[in-house]
Amino acid sequence: MHIDSSAETGVQHGQAAPAIALFLFAHQDDEFAVFQQITSERQGGRRVVCMYFTSGVPAGGDPACRNAESVSVLSALGVAPGDIYFPGELLAIPDGTLQEHIAVAAAWLASETAAWQPLASIYLMAWEGGHPDHDVLHAIGMQVFGARGLAAVMRQFALYNGHRCPGQFFRVLSPLAANGPVESTRMSWPQRLHFLRLCLQYPSQRITWIGLFPFVLLHYLFNGKQALQMVSAERVLQRPHTGALYYEKRGFSTWKTVNSRLAQWRAGLE
Question: Which of 20, 33, 92, 126 is the most buried (most CB within 10 A)?
């Protein structure tokens, strides 16, 4: 699948194609963290393109339901269905295993976007130690687009992390100070209510959202801001934060394993 700048977007001959805003996600429903930014990009006239780099289900599972949920939510935000990509399904990368498929995922991303112009903004999942798939995808995006000199148009967004949280508790939509200054955009109350309704549109993830929704609700009620941070090539060489990472507490992986696999991949690029 390739970006087409003609009939699908209504671009007439002789007119410039709309600038592209690219959002990289690990799993279907990760988009909840950037509902406001997707909306802002659409309102600014940019073409929003979203990509999901795992199938969102265990090996052998069918991602059709999860795909449909995210397509429905993104469509409600004005994203064209043809601009929603599922390379995780295409490349057979099960949920939780992106660290085992770094090279193939990075190669696909580099090849697919090589000719995209103009690529005006790129949004990465934060380097925060919440889920190994999230951090690995952050590192992949940094490498692929950093090599093209696009660091200035990249921003990261937090989903969840366990920094300074006891046991398996976690913080939601809470940027790490180590990732730098926060760029905030306040959401209107109608937007907050709309986004909360969208958070309820993932029935296949009901159990996950039972734990997640209360924190998202509190964020919308008492904070109500879209938070973004710049990216740093140096940060992806550092442990996301001190103390046990959330994915270590959950037994998904370890920093030593994730860091080693990323280092091996980078060494192979030299």
Answer: 126
